[in-house]
Design a protein that fits this description.
Layout: H1 28-38, E1 44-47, H2 63-74, E2 77-81, H3 93-98, E3 104-108, E4 118-122, H4 124-131, H5 145-158, H6 165-187, E5 191-194, E6 199-204, H7 213-219, H8 222-234, E7 244-246, H9 253-271
Parallel strand pairs: 1-2, 2-3
Antiparallel strand pairs: 3-4, 5-6, 6-7
Helix pairs in contact: 1-2, 6-9, 8-9
Length: 272
Amino acid sequence: MLPQPEPMSQGVADNSESGLIILPWNNFEAIKTVFEERGDEIAAVITEPIMCNTNCIMPKPGYLEHLKESCDRNDSLLIFDEVITGFRVNSGGAQSFFGITPHLATFAKAAAGGFPVSILTGSKEIMSLIGAGTVMHGGTLNANVMSMAATKSSMEHLSDKEIQTNKKLNDLGQRLMKGLQDINSRLEAGMLIQGPGSVFAVSFTDGKEVFDYRSHVENSDPDRYAVFVSEMMKRGIRINSRGIWFLSESHTDMDIESTLSAASEVLQSMAL
């Protein structure tokens, strides 16, 4: 059975779900079936290329390729939400990381180094509709000078091959992930750590795999994670309460070591 749309906020109209088909992620058969049965209704498929807001789930081998091929065959658009993955996992976003180019993609957050900006990118054919006025593109702060200057500076910095920002972030993140995994194995803490490195997620699942939203909800223990967050805070380490961890260029080797030291102490106390 396919997942049913559920509003995440009050004020959502009952009929707002009528134009949506929600599918389980990483499910090849679900994509195949819905395109076969309802392909004429599908204008676009929109997804995070890495499910950062849902335990940082990585796509199964071939899954993103399957999405792109299915969309191409059906003359539908593939849209990547790269608001989190953009410029974190790779200077060209997750699409460069995986080698899959969507028809449209959204970016924000890291694009301007913390200044407010949102970006829509796409093929020349699609984006020309905006330039021609066929599709309206309105915004109170469009081309805001401060944000544009910050974006330009950030893009120049991220594309500088000598600085190699993304390599540093992913290397630091992978070191932190491995350290947490080693502590988890030693203490049998029941943690799941997954993601590419510069962004990853930590949850308590007692070893159960998390491969889509449903398995994330069913297998994760948010109460245990909340205790972990609170105890880490007491030791001077602030981590996101949603389970997602981000690396920044400001982080150092010392930050990694102090985080691992605190995590070891906290997990040891939680096991008692």
